[in-house]
Design goal:
The strands form 3 sheets. A 5-stranded mixed sheet has the order 7-6-10-8-9. A 3-stranded antiparallel sheet has the order 2-1-5. Strands 3-4 form a two-stranded antiparallel sheet. Helix 1 packs antiparallel against helix 7. The protein is α+β, with helices and mostly antiparallel strands and 263 residues long. It contains 7 helices and 10 strands. 29% of the residues lie in helices and 23% in strands. The two termini are 18 Å apart. 19% of the residues are buried.
């Protein structure tokens, strides 16, 4: 009888503790530390400043197509610009010294500048050395996609690119196929590069207050690590059915051993 009670208690404990609770799987929950009546103000972000390994898309246009073509890396026509991913092959990579190489203009230092500052720098250099105001010079500078790396408990880990000017960590997770059921949404680490070094920060994606974190918005070259839940290390299953199957297997083994020892 005592053995039966012990085995029953073991089954209940393992079954209840090994399943992943629903509250650990839902994003952006209201955990009682926010005011429902308060409006969420738009987050004022500081403009991003270009760093090493960033990829820039620079487009120069004038009323003189032949002269403009001198400053293009590739011929700019509709047959070659078929989708956003082609920007990667037309972009200007920032080297380890913070320079990019533009045809005719040569090397240009863009380290620590915003895209607007880079645009103004290119425009001024072109107007001073090559063009006059009558050519209707137009320069466009963009970050050619947000490159990031995501590892750990996600469906599709690896280095990825989001072809947008603004993205959140939830966009990055969705682009990686979502966090697995054994991933700890409360313990997601973000590593971010700054000129002064690398900073690490842990955020809770199940709390809606995460939208107020500066790490909620993705920046180029971010590294995201989704840590596993303790249920994964136990190996008892992630759902009730998996846990029950594991428990039954263990109990069958224990019962067999008890029968053998009593003979």
């Amino acid at each position: 009888m005592n053995t039966f009670k012990w085995m029953t208690a073991f089954v209940l404990f393992t079954f209840l503790s090994s399943c992943v609770p629903t509250k650990d799987l839902i994003y952006l929950q209201d955990k009682g530390n926010t005011n429902d009546t308060a409006t969420i103000n738009e987050i004022l972000k500081k403009p991003y400043r270009v760093q090493v390994n960033d990829l820039l898309y620079i487009n120069i246009k004038t009323i003189d197509p032949q002269l403009t073509a001198l400053f293009q890396q590739v011929e700019n026509n509709m047959q070659q610009i078929q989708n956003e991913q082609n920007i990667f092959f037309q972009g200007f990579n920032v080297d380890n010294h913070g320079f990019i190489r533009i045809p005719v203009l040569g090397e240009l230092n863009v380290m620590g500048l915003t895209v607007d500052e880079i645009r103004s720098k290119i425009e001024n250099k072109l107007l001073e050395e090559y063009f006059n105001k009558e050519v209707n010079l137009f320069v466009s500078v963009k970050i050619a996609g947000i490159r990031y790396t995501i590892n750990g408990e996600v469906v599709l880990p690896g280095t990825k690119i989001l072809y947008t000017e603004r993205a959140t960590i939830l966009d990055a997770v969705a682009n990686a196929g979502d966090i697995t059921i054994t991933g700890d949404r409360k313990n997601v680490m973000v590593m971010r590069q700054f000129p002064s070094g690398i900073e690490m920060h842990t955020i809770d994606l199940t709390d809606k207050n995460v939208i107020n974190s500066p790490y909620f918005y993705l920046l180029p070259n971010d590294y995201i690590l989704v840590n596993p839940l303790k249920q994964k290390s136990w190996g008892t299953g992630t759902t009730g059915l998996q846990s029950l199957t594991t428990v039954i297997s263990v109990l069958t083994l224990v019962a067999t051993l008890l029968v053998l020892t009593q003979r």
